[in-house]
Design goal:
The complex is a heterodimer of chains A (606) and B (157). Chain A has 606 residues and is an alpha+beta fold. Chain A contains 24 helices and 17 strands. The radius of gyration of chain A is 22 Å and the shape is globular. With 157 residues, chain B is α+β, with helices and mostly antiparallel strands. Chain B has a single domain (3-151), classed as Alpha-Beta Plaits (2-Layer Sandwich), CATH 3.30.70. In chain B, the strands form four sheets. In chain B, strands 1-8 form a two-stranded antiparallel sheet. Chain B has a two-stranded antiparallel sheet with strand order 2-3. Classes of the chains: A alpha+beta (606), B alpha+beta (157).
C-alpha cells in the first residue's frame, strides 16, 4: 500500500506500452520517486549512453505518499541521464500531474527508445495509447495542454509536455506540467524531445490506498498542524520563496552580474514586497497564491504583467495571469543578469513556462553571455542587434523568447553556460558544476552550499542538501562536511516519498516517519528512512562514476575559489571547498578519488 | 440547527485536500475522480472555485427520481442517495440545474454530497477556511460582518 505496485513501460521504438508489477524488493530498498527511479534507471541503461540517443531511459516517478492526504503529496520526479551534465538528472515537480499518474494506477512511467515520428501518450487508467502528435508538435506548452483537452473532450486530463525548447534540444529544456509547474533542471525536457515524445496526458480514477488508513489519517492531521503553526510555513504562504532575496542581499550571497558581485542594487524593485505593492498606475504584480496538489503551504505565486509594459503592450495574449516569480526565477532574471524590472522578470518567467525551459540555467547562461559581450568576446552582430549588457531588460525578455523558440542568438544560449563560455574561449566564466549552472546562492558567503553544489549528483543544485542554518551561523568551511552529507541523505529520502522539500519549514524527521510508516508496508523507522536516503545518494553517485565522473568533477569555478567576495558579510572570503571535500569523502565512506568504497557499497546493500 | 457548507473562493488555493477527503470518506481511497466536491480553476490559477451540492430545499433531483432513491436526511438537511434503491437511470443528473449529482460508472449508481452525515470532511480538511460548515440561516454572517466593519469609521479612543 502507498505504492500502486504497478509500473507502465513504454517502448517508443517498438510502439508498445505494457504494465508490469513494481519490483517490491527495490521499493523496500529505495522507497519511491527519486530513489526508486534511480534504481530502475541504473538497471535499465548504460550510464555511458548518449543522453540524447534512444538508449537513454526517461522515468516519471511518483512516491508512495504521492496522491495521499499527506501535505504536499503532489510531487513526482523525472529521472534520466541529463544532456546538460552527462550525469544522472533528477528533476522534481509539483502541480497535479504526478498525483494523476498515480491515480491511473502507476508508480512509475518508464519511457524507452525513440518514436519514428512525434507522438504523445494518452493514459486513462489501464487504457494506454501512443498517438501521433500531428498538430501538437511545434506548439507551446500552454497550447499543447489546451489542444489535448479539446481533442479528447476531457477537461480532467492532466498534461506534462515539452515546448519548442525541448523539441529543438535546448540543453536545459524542462518538462512542464499543469501550465507552470516544471521538472526544471538538467535538460530532462530535451531528453523527452530526443525521444519524439511531446506530451503525457493522463486521467486516473483508481485512487490511492494506504496500509493503515486510521493511523495514517491521524499522522497526517498531526503533521499538518505542525506545518500550519510553523513560522517558516506562514512566511512561504504569505510571501512565497522570493522572501529569500532580501535575506541573500543583506547577507551578501546574492549572485550578481554573473557572480562578479554578491549584492545587487535593485532588490527592492523585485522582492516579495514589490510583487505585492501596486506600481505608479495601480498595477499589482501578485494576483494570488496557489497550491500544488495536496499542499497546505501554497507558496506558488500567480501574477500578471502591467499591460503598459513594453513586453506586452502590443501582445494581449500575455495579459493573462499565470505563474509568477519565485526566488530562483527572481535571481535568474534579476541580480545575475543585473535587471530590476519586475514586469520584465515576470514576462521572462512566462517564456520559460510557455516554451519549456529551466529559468536558472537560462538566466545564468545569459549572465555569462553578458559578461562575454561586455568584454568584447561576443560581438553585437551576433546577438540579433540586442545590446547584451547587464541590466538590459530587453536583452532578458527578447533572449528568453528567442531561446525558447530556438531562434537567432537564442540557439547559442540554448547550449547552456559551459558550452557557451567554451565556444567564446573563456571557460572560466561558466558559473556552475558538472555543466549545470548555479542557483541563487554564492559559495563564498555560504560555505556548505558550495560543498553541496560541488557534490550534487545532478550538477550544481541548491535543492539536494540543506545546511542553510549552519551556513548563516558560521561562514567558514569548518565542520560543514558532515551536515552537508547528512542533509543530502535526508533530502534524498524526502524526494523519494512523494512529498515536497518545503515541508521542512515545519517538519522534523519523525513527521515523515509517522506518515510513511502508516502508509507503506514494512517497518519504517527514522534510521531506515535515512539509510534509504544514503542508499539513493550513493546509487546516483555510482551511476555518475560509471558515466565517467571522478573527484575532479566535484569542483567550483576559480572565481569562487580564488576571487574574494567583494562585499557583504563574507567580504574577502573565498570558498573553502579544498578543505571541505576530503572531509566530505571521508564522512561518505568514499575513496580519495570520490568513489564509494567496497565497505560502503556492502553496508548499503548496493 | 441545520448547517450548510459555506464556500469562499477567494481563500481557495486549489490544493484538492477537499476532494481527497471526500473520496476517502465515501470510497475509502484518496481518489479525486470520485469526489463529490470539485475545484474549478480558471486562467492558469487566477481563481479556484470549490463547487458542490447546496442541498436545495426544493430539490429537483429528489422530485425527478422515479424510485424514491433520493431522500432528505431531516437531521442534516442533506439529500442522500439510497444506493440499494437507486437504479442508475440518471434522470436526477438531468434534473439538477447545477450538475452536482453524477453517475458513478463503477457502482452503477449516482453519487452526491451527503454532508458526511453532518461532519463534512471537505470542510475539516480545508487548510485555508475556503470551505466551512455553518448555521444554514446565517451563511451570510461573516460577509455581513466584513461590510459592517467598513462602516465603523469613528476615530479610535
Amino acid at each position: 500500500m502507498g505504492w500502486q505496485r504497478k509500473i507502465l513501460v513504454v517502448d517508443l521504438t517498438k510502439g508498445e506500452a505494457k504494465a508490469e508489477p513494481l519490483n517490491m524488493d527495490w521499493a523496500f530498498q529505495y522507497l519511491g520517486e527519486r530513489g526508486l527511479a534511480t534504481k530502475y534507471l541504473s538497471e535499465m541503461m548504460d550510464p555511458k549512453a548518449d543522453p540524447m540517443g534512444p538508449d537513454n531511459v526517461l522515468i516519471f516517478a511518483t512516491g508512495p505518499l504521492t496522491g495521499t492526504m499527506a501535505s504536499t503529496s503532489g510531487r513526482y520526479a523525472v529521472v534520466t541521464k541529463g544532456p546538460l551534465t552527462g550525469a544522472i538528472a533528477c528533476s522534481n515537480s509539483g502541480g497535479k500531474f504526478g498525483a494523476e499518474l498515480k491515480f491511473a494506477g502507476y508508480d512509475l512511467l518508464i519511457v524507452k527508445g525513440k518514436a519514428k515520428k512525434p507522438v504523445y501518450l494518452h493514459i486513462i487508467d489501464d487504457q494506454v495509447e501512443i498517438l501521433p502528435a500531428d498538430g501538437i508538435w511545434g506548439q507551446t506548452v500552454w497550447k499543447t495542454e489546451e489542444l489535448l483537452k479539446s481533442k479528447h473532450q476531457n477537461p480532467l486530463l492532466k498534461v506534462a509536455s515539452i515546448g519548442e525548447a525541448g523539441e529543438k534540444g535546448v540543453l536545459y529544456a524542462c518538462v512542464v506540467n499543469d501550465l507552470h509547474r516544471a521538472a526544471g533542471r538538467s535538460g530532462v525536457g530535451a531528453v523527452m524531445g530526443s525521444k519524439n515524445l511531446k506530451a503525457v496526458a493522463v486521467h486516473g480514477s483508481k485512487g490511492v490506498r494506504v496500509k493503515d488508513p486510521k493511523r495514517f489519517m491521524g499522522a497526517v492531521k498531526a503533521a499538518k498542524e505542525v506545518l500550519a503553526n510553523s513560522t517558516g510555513r506562514k512566511e512561504l504562504t504569505e510571501y512565497g520563496t522570493n522572501a529569500m532575496i532580501d535575506v541573500m542581499q543583506q547577507f551578501g550571497g546574492l549572485p550578481t552580474n554573473n557572480f562578479q558581485k554578491v549584492q545587487f542594487d535593485g532588490t527592492e524593485k523585485i522582492n516579495a514586497k514589490a510583487m505585492m505593492t501596486p506600481n505608479a498606475h495601480g498595477h499589482r504584480n501578485l494576483v494570488t497564491n496557489k497550491a500544488c496538489f495536496g499542499c497546505t503551504i501554497a507558496c506558488g505565486r500567480i501574477a500578471h504583467i502591467d499591460k503598459e509594459h513594453f513586453t506586452v503592450v502590443n501582445r494581449k495574449e500575455y495579459w493573462l495571469a499565470s505563474g509568477g516569480l519565485e526566488y530562483e526565477t527572481a535571481y535568474a532574471f534579476g541580480p545575475v543578469v543585473g535587471v530590476a524590472d519586475i514586469d520584465a522578470l515576470t514576462f521572462a518567467g512566462y517564456m520559460m513556462n510557455e516554451h519549456g525551459m529551466d529559468p536558472i540555467s537560462f538566466g545564468a547562461t545569459l549572465a555569462a553571455a553578458m559578461e562575454l559581450y561586455e568584454m568584447g568576446a561576443i560581438k553585437k552582430d551576433e546577438t540579433d542587434g540586442i545590446e547584451l549588457r547587464f541590466g538590459n531588460a530587453e536583452a532578458l525578455t527578447v533572449m528568453a523568447e528567442k531561446t525558447g523558440k530556438g531562434e537567432g542568438f537564442g540557439k547559442i544560449l540554448g547550449l547552456g553556460s559551459k558550452r557557451l563560455c567554451e565556444k567564446y574561449g573563456h571557460p572560466e566564466l561558466f558559473m556552475g558544476v558538472k555543466g549545470q549552472e548555479f542557483a541563487g546562492y554564492d559559495s563564498r558567503a555560504l560555505q556548505g552550499m558550495g560543498l553541496g553544489y560541488a557534490t550534487s549528483n545532478r550538477g550544481a543544485c541548491h535543492l539536494k542538501h540543506d545546511v542553510f542554518a549552519e551556513d548563516m551561523e558560521d561562514q567558514t568551511g569548518k565542520g560543514k562536511a558532515v551536515p552537508v552529507k547528512k542533509s543530502q541523505d535526508k533530502v534524498a529520502m524526502i524526494d523519494s516519498t512523494g512529498l515536497c522539500l518545503f515541508v521542512t519549514a515545519g517538519w522534523g524527521l519523525e513527521d515523515f516517519q509517522t506518515q510513511v510508516d502508516a502508509a507503506c508496508e514494512g517497518e519504517w523507522s527514522v534510521e531506515r528512512l535515512l539509510e534509504t536516503g544514503e542508499r539513493v545518494w550513493n546509487a546516483e553517485r555510482i551511476f555518475n562514476n560509471n558515466a565517467g565522473f571522478t573527484a575532479k568533477d566535484d569542483s567550483l569555478p576559480e572565481r569562487l575559489l580564488k576571487v574574494p567576495a567583494p562585499s557583504g558579510t563574507a567580504k574577502g572570503k573565498v570558498s573553502e571547498l579544498g578543505k571541505m571535500l576530503p572531509e566530505y569523502y571521508e564522512a561518505r565512506g568514499w575513496s580519495k578519488d570520490g568513489r564509494p568504497t567496497n565497505e560502503t557499497i556492502t553496508r548499503l546493500g548496493l | 440547527m441545520q448547517k450548510s457548507l459555506l464556500i469562499d473562493p477567494d481563500k481557495c488555493t486549489s490544493c484538492l485536500q477537499c476532494e481527497m477527503a471526500c473520496s476517502f470518506e465515501h470510497e475509502g481511497a484518496f481518489n479525486p475522480a470520485k469526489s463529490r466536491i470539485k475545484i474549478f480553476e480558471f486562467e492558469h490559477g487566477r481563481r479556484a472555485i470549490p463547487y458542490t451540492c447546496t442541498q436545495c430545499a426544493e430539490a429537483w433531483c429528489l422530485h425527478a427520481c422515479p424510485v424514491e432513491a433520493l431522500v432528505r436526511n431531516q437531521a442534516t438537511g442533506a439529500v442522500e442517495v439510497k444506493e440499494d434503491v437507486c437504479v442508475g437511470c440518471k434522470v436526477c443528473t438531468i434534473a439538477c440545474p447545477f450538475g452536482t449529482i453524477n453517475y458513478n460508472q463503477s457502482t452503477g449508481k449516482v453519487a452526491k454530497c451527503d454532508l458526511c452525515g453532518g461532519d463534512p470532511q471537505c470542510a475539516a480538511a480545508c487548510p485555508t477556511g475556503a470551505i466551512t460548515y455553518v448555521d444554514s440561516d446565517w451563511t451570510g454572517y461573516e460577509r455581513m460582518k466584513q461590510w459592517a466593519v467598513k462602516t465603523d469609521n469613528r476615530p479610535q479612543a
